[in-house]
Amino acid sequence: MSTSATQEKTIDEPGTTVAQQHETKIALEGKVIAITGANRGIGLGVAQSCLDNGAQVVYSIDYAEPGEEFTQAQERWKGKLKVIQADVTKEATVTAAVDRIVEQEGALHGMVVNAGRTNHKAALDFTEEEIHALFNINLFGAFYCARAAARAFIKLDIKGAVVFTASMASYRPNKRVPSAPYGASKAGVRNMTHTLAMEWAKYGIRVNSVSPGLVETAMTYWVPQQPDWEQQLKYYGGMPRLAQIQELGGAYVYLLSDAASYTTSIDIPVNGVIGKRTDVSGIALLDRAPESEGIDLKQVRLYRQGRLREQMIKYGVDAVILSDPVNIRYATGTRNMQVFSMRNAPSRYLILTAQRSILFEFTGCSHLADGYETVDEVRAAKTASFVAAGPKIEQREKAWAEEMASLIDQIIDKPKSEIVVGLERLNANTAIQLRDTGLQIVDAQRPVEMARAIKSPEEVKCVIASLRATEVAVGKLREAIRPGLTENELCAGSRTNPWFQETASYRIQPNDLIALDTDVVGCHGYYSDFSRTFHAGPDPPTEKQKELYRVTHNMGILKPGMTFREYADQAWDIPAKYYKNRYYLSAHGCGLTGEYPYLYHHGDFPDAGYDGIIEPGMVICVESYIGEDGGVEGVKLEQQVLVTETGIQLLSEFPFESLLLD
């Protein structure tokens, strides 16, 4: 069959695409399959999978000489595994190879376009010859092979299948081993898959692709040898290993089989989800992350409300009026317009007593509390802010206070003058007006913070779900770091000394340190709080940068039963040259936000510190900032841990920067 001969059947005379009988078995009995680049590696693995699933014969079209592995496979599949030597970057030689297969076998049913090459280096380092070499085989050669196969299918009136080998590199770059030309060539393959599938559907030809991830081949020998490979796997998620070549074959076999007769224009990623969390595609889905599966949120809500009531009893508080939206969420699980309600308090508030939980919801929002077992009643809130009341603010505040006092007096069986009410985050005059009704007014912060400090096991699951989702986001940010990007584009930046600087239009320079503190309120409203410092490259970090990274606080002293003072006494003494720019805390509690307790540095404890006990169930963030006074760079690191009955459990798993640890 020559190229010109295939053109005798024009595109105006397509074969029918209506199948007479639908095949349900995934098998390749009687099929002739051609695979480019099948003398070794992935191609040879796919060839053996095809033969294992009944293929009549498989041809390898390859420029290289067969090796020992191929010869051994031929011994196993006597007469069924053949090779034709051809340069796939030349359309004429590919066409000749296809003609030879058809001449010898009388048919061709499937073409796996697998031949390819890789070359990893920075984009500016590629030579023109290297770029052409990648595109010639990965993209142009792939096109020639697909076209030669399609012409044969049309000539033979066979509804054949073309399966390209693409790559996960077509979805995202790899900072450690970059290759812009390789990724672009493979992205072109996936685009070509869709275009050819559309064009050739009229002939019943199906065109699909498979995107392997990290597969154990000669090209990936270096991957598991990285010193932080185990940490990478923890961050990446998915199956913590490289794939075996044989594990890819099933995807190819399916796409080549008649069971896939209505499957075209798709790409199948075979990557064990390594490096791509397909389960967390956006903020709207964070609560559906796999770490969230099995969490009993009803139990979380009931525990939190019960714990708050316990602390109210402990500190002699009969009722609390909560207007802080985070505290309302802690006590009930409900949420609504958090930033707005913080600025316009009281506009949404909760009365909680030992007997009742009454939520005053913003106008038109009462439905948001439907189904919450932690809310006994929902009423319309009265916004007592200047924005809402203008010059009538004092009358509005007085009316608000009288309504609250009357309701509390009805609920609590005590003389009004003996009722103790805890308040937080209210206008000063609302508190004054409430006190003037005859109630005893105290600060609600103590019982609320003491309640929030101890987490239930279900709460800890929420914390972990929030951390895992945040780690995915930080991983994407880490991959995006490159010189020339602004801090605002990246949302982290090099102005790392002193700490507490907002992002700006500063452009990241080569070899900058890039620091971030997540401070994310994520899944289920729980705080994900860890800090990392990265190196922008392209050169190795300096010894000075490594020194800053290594001088970090040791969280090993944390243990249950330790007092806050004991922690401060045993804490690491920050060297004098870094002391002025120290972080304001050594550690702090963490829950729905940053919480009680604050654990201070030894030098700050006499003035700022207070005593207490580190208890099991506390989630603590241990922080360290190291930056010399007057210096240019600093390093921020932070880990989130759970205090257990016997010690601590590390919750944050995002790896440290291996280049800065060497």
Short description:
This protein folds into three domains: 3-270, Rossmann fold; 297-453, Creatinase/prolidase N-terminal domain (Creatine Amidinohydrolase, Chain A, domain 1, 3-Layer(aba) Sandwich), CATH 3.40.350; 457-661, Alpha-Beta Complex (Creatine Amidinohydrolase), CATH 3.90.230. It contains 22 helices and 22 strands. The longest helix has 29 residues, at 128-156.
Structure description:
It is a single chain. It contains 22 helices and 22 strands. The protein is α/β, with parallel strands linked by helices. It has 3 domains: 3-270, Rossmann fold; 297-453, Creatinase/prolidase N-terminal domain (Creatine Amidinohydrolase, Chain A, domain 1), CATH 3.40.350.10; 457-661, Creatinase/methionine aminopeptidase superfamily (Creatine Amidinohydrolase, Alpha-Beta Complex). The strands form 5 sheets. A 7-stranded parallel β-sheet has the order 3-2-1-4-5-6-7, with helices on both faces. A 6-stranded mixed β-sheet has the order 11-10-9-8-12-13. Helix 9 (297-314) crosses helix 15 (445-453).
How does the helix and strand content classify structurally? alpha/beta
- The name of the CATH architecture of the largest domain is 3-Layer(aba) Sandwich
The major beta sheet can be summarized as:
7 strands, parallel
* Shape assignment: elongated
Quantity of strands, as a count:
22
Low-confidence runs of at least 5 consecutive residues: 1-19, 275-288
Summarize model confidence as the mean pLDDT: 86
Task: Report Rg.
Answer: 33 Å
Order of strands in the sheet with most strands: 3-2-1-4-5-6-7
Give the number of helices.
22
Query: Number of folding domains?
Result: 3
User: What percent of the residues sit in helical stretches (DSSP H or I)?
Assistant: 25-40%
